[in-house]
Design a protein that fits this description.
With about 250 residues, the protein is of the alpha/beta class. It folds into 2 domains: about 100 residues, Rossmann fold (3-Layer(aba) Sandwich), CATH 3.40.50; about 130 residues, Rossmann fold (3-Layer(aba) Sandwich), CATH 3.40.50. It is about 30% helix and about 20% strand. A hairpin with a 2-residue loop joins β5 and β6. α4 crosses α8. The longest helix has 15 residues. It starts with a strand and ends with a helix. The relative contact order is 0.14.
Length: about 250
Amino acid sequence: MRRFGLIGFPLTHSFSRKYFTEKFIAADIHDCAYENFPLLDISELPELLDELPDLMGLNVTIPYKEKVLPYLNVVDDVVRGTGACNCIRIHNSNLVGFNTDVTGFRISLEGRLKKSHDRALILGKGGAAKAVAYALTTMGIPFKFVVRKPHNDPDTIRYEELTVEDVAEHPLIINTTPAGMYPEVLSFPEIPYDGISFGHYLFDLVYNPIKTVFLKKGEGKGAIIQNGGEMLSIQAEESWKIWNQRD
């Protein structure tokens, strides 16, 4: 049996197990299984690996995309550039880190992106935000992070400092925080929504529910909206390619 899985905590929001289980059934793959591994702390990872010697690959989600780095033997250039990992290939007892969030986000974003969406606000600054920032940099789209805590970064704004004008001047807004994720479906990023217009594009990495309050507020202003469902499907397929490469 070739075993794969997802580490993070909590995993009640998990998309991956259902996705891969259905994939294996549809493709008539009988020698593979995908499981959830909720870890209370990333320090539990070595014990998990010892207990499951047939484990071939892992996806990594909140809150371990950055915390997992010290446990990796090798990382690719994207992990090195983002400082975050969401996919691990286990090969010859080595943990090899990748970041498929970058590819998933970029392909999904480009489907509805217009030339006018030329400046972005990234809500949050965790592992997913770093993947988004990396993708935007490769696309030549300047951005600012929006965070809650004090900082000394000129490219970062606190939520309480964000103005209607700031929102109006950044037609692309990406939510990388868990705000609005099931079961906290009534929560949303606290930004000045009056600055949003039909010229905006709101992208939410949350996929459950399908339409968060953040997206509903944007839709009410006439903005283009997109959830994280397509991004997740793309990054999942990228993970599958990585786990099955021959080298």
